[in-house]
Amino acid sequence: MTDLIDKAQESADYLLQQEIANRCRFEGESEKECIECGEEIPERRRALGGVKFCIECQTKIERKRR
C-alpha cells in the first residue's frame, strides 16, 4: 500500500514541477497573430506574455504531447 501512495506522490510532484516550468516560459512579448494558423490572438490571451499560439492551436499542441 505504501508503494502505491509513494508513486502517487511522486507523480503529483512531477506534474507540479512541470506546471511550474511551463509557467516560467510565459515571458516576453506575445505575438499578435498565431504563428501556426495566422489567426489573431485575443488581447486577453496576449496579456499573459510570451504567447505564440491561439487557444485552438495551443490545445492541439498540448494534446500531441500526451
Automatic annotation (TrEMBL):
GO terms for molecular function: zinc ion binding. The keyword Zinc-finger applies. Residues 32-63 form the Zinc finger DksA/TraR C4-type domain. One of its GO terms (biological process) is positive regulation of secondary metabolite biosynthetic process. Keywords: Metal-binding, Zinc, Zinc-finger. It comes from the Bacteria. This is Zinc finger DksA/TraR C4-type domain-containing protein. It comes from Acinetobacter nosocomialis 28F. The lineage of its organism: Bacteria, Pseudomonadati, Pseudomonadota, Gammaproteobacteria, Moraxellales.
